[in-house]
Design goal:
This protein is mostly helical. 66% of the residues lie in helices and 0% in strands. It has helices spanning 12-21, 29-38, 45-53, 56-66, 80-104, 111-131, 139-148, 152-159, 163-173, 177-185, 189-199, 204-212, 228-244, 256-266, 270-284. α6 crosses α13. It is globular, with a radius of gyration of 18 Å. The two termini are 25 Å apart. Residues 1-7 have low confidence and may be disordered.
């Protein structure tokens, strides 16, 4: 999404108004179950396998993610148990969150939302791959953030009957969606996404990145508002978004300013972006 529109941090009263007017989907029991198991001193692979195997979508996604370029060129896995062993706790949680997010929106499948979730999945994969090339950025956290950062868009769709038209128009005209949301609905999907992330128990760093990912001053915000780790997630996702926009339908266009700021922050060169583009093209072929 374009980040050139000035955003103001919501006041306490404004946040209370959003909370009162927006129905935030409750964190599904299956996500809580995985989080509980993941926080144990000795998480059980057997229990996690059982949880993933209980849902067809989670089973398929776990195998797909385990075979993705995030994990390099390891031998392919063919079962949920093998996938769980390769993925590790953080990525297992990513799989559960990804499927739960899609189910929790409560929206019937539409071409618009099918494209939205397809793009989100592709962006998350690309961001996770790119994060592997940057020391200090967790590929698991990058994947989660990229998957989740616009997840409030389906939530807005559920809460406002005319939101679909606003969202579709913003795609057609390459207009700034965030400004239209603020004008029309008195809130935006960055704030709602922050509330959603907090409600679902995502790490504070990811929640902060979601809250500020459309702020044009994001790269000069104080550390207490946006920690460097959160800014790194925004930057790596913006570069990944820029790359996939060349070959993914309806991918968001990253503004020149946002792209330049991301490259400077991460120390990424144009040659490295070209190499990364080749990697992603091959991975998605």
């Amino acid at each position: 999404m374009n980040t050139d529109t000035l955003l103001q941090a919501p006041s306490h009263a404004e946040l209370e108004e959003v909370l009162a007017s927006i129905r935030i989907p409750a964190c599904p029991a299956i996500v809580n179950e995985v989080m509980f198991e993941a926080q144990r001193d000795d998480p059980s692979i057997k229990v996690l396998t059982r949880i993933l195997s209980s849902d067809v979508g989670m089973s398929a996604m776990s195998v797909k993610l385990a075979n993705s370029p995030i994990f390099g060129s390891a031998a392919p896995v063919r079962s949920v148990q093998q996938a769980v062993s390769r993925l590790g706790i953080s990525n297992i949680l990513n799989v559960v969150i990804a499927v739960a997010l899609r189910n929790a929106s409560g929206n019937p499948p539409t071409p618009l939302m099918e494209k939205f979730w397809s793009r989100a999945s592709t962006l998350a994969l690309a961001t996770g791959v790119l994060a592997r090339k940057h020391v200090g950025i967790s590929p698991e956290s990058a994947y989660t953030y990229a998957l989740f950062h616009d997840a409030a868009i389906p939530v807005m769709l559920s809460n406002f009957p005319d939101y679909a038209a606003v969202y579709a128009a913003s795609q057609d005209r390459a207009a700034t969606l965030i400004a239209q949301e603020q004008q029309r609905f008195k809130c935006d999907h960055a704030v709602v996404g922050w509330l959603l992330a907090r409600s679902w128990g995502l790490p504070p760093t990811i929640a902060a990145a979601i809250r500020y990912h459309h702020d044009p001053e994001v790269y000069i915000l104080p550390e207490k508002e946006l920690p460097a780790g959160a800014l790194a997630l925004i930057a790596v996702t913006q570069i990944a978004e820029h790359v996939i926009s060349d070959f993914v339908e309806d991918a968001d266009i990253v503004s020149a300013r946002a792209l330049d700021d991301a490259k400077v922050f991460l120390g990424t060169t144009d040659a490295e972006i070209d190499d990364f583009r080749d990697t992603i093209v091959a991975a998605l072929a």
